[in-house]
Design goal:
CATH architecture: Orthogonal Bundle
Pfam families: UbiA
Membrane topology: Multi-pass membrane protein
Subcellular location: Cell membrane
Strand content: under 5%
CATH class: Mainly Alpha
Number of helices: 16
Main location: membrane
Protein name: Prenyltransferase
Shape: globular
Helix content: over 70%
Mean pLDDT: 87
Order of helices and strands: HHHHHHHHHHHHHHHH
Number of strands: 0
Largest sheet: none
Length: 306
């Protein structure tokens, strides 16, 4: 190699590094969109609820373990979950109109893939932070989060398996409860939360019916069609409210907002594509009320006001 060749390589390498540095803000922006910030609380919210109902005093609310769990399931877990989803849905998403606006198509760059792998590896640290009673819930989350989109399982392409597998969203909350309480959550609460996620997923899949059909993907929503999918969601959410009512009637009453919501969308002139983007706000409101109820259990509201 001549001196001029070496100099040229150095210049070329420097240019590549400069371009990579210049592209970094765009890569980070893409990762932010990929992680679905509107849905961050779908994983972190159940952690907050699980902690508030598992603790026996306010001193257990903010500990290194609870903060670490909340932090992981707020962002890194979403990078893992939706990164795997987008990676294996790249072809399908070419025809998905949702990817034209508030979501992003898989770009296939090395930074994105490295971020997804790093998020998965970081998740293994949650096992070191938690007692064994929480491990089945954590393991269930990672298996379902990957298996939902990745072959050979790819639950999302099998009607009803796609719906049932979305119980993954409540498993971080169950793990958080088990971590602070030292025991598993009430069975009725787990059943109610799982049924809620089944309805949530299937309702969210309605806007994807046409893109999925065009791509040859079979889901609960494509199998049932729009009107019967509304009925399926209604049944899931009525059952969820009943299960939560078995734990506490107030929980059942609060969860009763979901059957009302889906019935209203089904009979109104509101487009489901539009209602889909209201759903995170509804879930945040309900989750906040649930978490506040758990907090007031150990720190009554009259003490706060007094």
């Amino acid at each position: 190699m001549t001196g001029s060749d070496a100099a040229g390589d150095e210049v070329g390498g420097g240019t590549d590094r400069d371009e990579a540095t210049a592209d970094l803000p765009d890569h980070l922006r893409y990762l932010f969109v990929l992680s679905r910030p509107r849905f961050w609380l779908y994983l972190a919210g159940p952690v907050a609820v699980g902690v508030t109902y598992g603790i026996d005093g306010v001193d257990g609310l903010f500990t290194p373990t609870t903060v670490a769990l909340a932090g992981y399931f707020l962002v890194p877990a979403n990078v893992f979950l939706y990164g795997v989803n987008d990676l294996f849905d790249a072809d399908v998403d070419e025809h998905n109109p949702k990817k034209d606006d508030r979501e992003a198509r898989w770009q296939g760059n090395r930074l994105a893939l490295a971020a997804v792998i790093a998020a998965a590896l970081l998740g293994t640290g949650t096992f070191a932070l938690t007692p064994r009673v929480a491990w089945p819930f954590l393991a269930g989350f990672f298996v379902l989060a990957a298996g939902y989109s990745a072959p050979p399982l790819r639950f999302k392409t099998t009607p009803f398996a796609d719906s049932v597998s979305n119980g993954l969203y409540i498993l971080p909350g169950a793990a958080a409860y088990a971590t602070v309480a030292g025991t598993v959550p009430p069975t009725a609460a787990l059943a109610g939360a799982w049924l809620w996620t089944m309805g949530m997923h299937t309702f969210s899949a309605i806007p994807d019916v046409e893109p999925d059909r065009e791509a040859g993907i079979r889901t609960t929503a494509t199998l049932l069609g729009e009107s019967r999918t509304y009925a399926y969601c209604l049944a899931c959410w009525v059952a969820a409210a009943a299960a939560f009512a078995a734990v506490d009637l107030r929980f059942g009453a609060l969860l009763g907002v979901y059957p009302i919501f889906v019935a209203w969308v089904a009979v109104s002139a509101v487009s489901v594509d539009r209602a889909y983007w209201w759903f995170p706000a509804l879930n945040t409101a309900v989750g906040t009320l649930l978490a506040m109820g758990g907090l007031w259990r150990v720190y009554p509201v009259w003490e706060v006001l007094g």
